[in-house]
Amino acid sequence: MTSPRSESGSSPHLTVKQLAARWHTTPSAIYIARHRGRAPQGFKSGAKVLFPLAAVEAFEAAQMAGDRPSGRRTAAEHRPPEALRARRRRKPATV
Predict the structure, then answer these.
(1) Assign residue 46 a region: left if phi > 0, alpha if psi is -120 to 50, beta otherwise?
(2) Which of 8, 13, 4 has its CA nearest to residue 41?
(3) Which of 42, 67, 76, 91 lies 20 to 30 angstroms, CA to CA, from 1?
(4) According to the model, what pLDDT value does residue 73 have?
(5) Which own/partner contact pairs does 7-12 have at CB distance under 8 Å and 24+ positions apart?
(6) In terms of C-beta density within 10 A (0-12 exposed, 13-18 middle, 19 or more buried), how is residue 16 classed?
(7) Strands 13-15, 43-45: parallel, antiparallel or unpaired by DSSP?
(8) pLDDT tens, 61-85?
(9) Per-residue model confidence as pLDDT tens digits over 85-95
(10) Which pLDDT value is given to residue 71?
(11) Which long-range contacts (CB under 8 A, 24 or more apart) does 52-59 make?
(12) Strands (E), 1-95
């Protein structure tokens, strides 16, 4: 009988627990993302869900390629604040 492969990374597949550790999240978040289609393509092997390492890396690369900068400017590019307008005084209400 052969022993199961260790979880040290000798397999070309990641378990939900390993993917959660890689993405610094919880296994529940991985299951939810998989259900919503926001995780790499995986497959069930018995009771476990496995994600091919190549699919995970391709998914991460696609996410990085689609990431946009926040649009914030650096401090040197900010314009000086505009002067505030003087407030109009309200006319007193006549009774």
Answers:
(1) left
(2) 13
(3) 42
(4) 57
(5) 12/52, 12/53, 12/54
(6) buried
(7) unpaired
(8) 999 888 777 666 555 555 666 666 6
(9) 666 677 777 77
(10) 63
(11) 52/12, 52/13, 52/14, 53/12, 53/13, 53/14, 54/12, 56/14, 56/19, 56/22
(12) 13-15, 43-45, 48-52
Q: Which segment of 6-15, 28-37, 38-47 scores lowest on mean pLDDT?
A: 6-15
Exposed, middle or buried, 82 (CB in 10 Å: 0-12/13-18/19+)?
Answer: exposed
Paired tokens of 55: 């699919």
Compute the C-alpha angle 52/57/61, nearest 5°. Answer: 150
Is this structure's pTM higher than 0.70? Answer: no
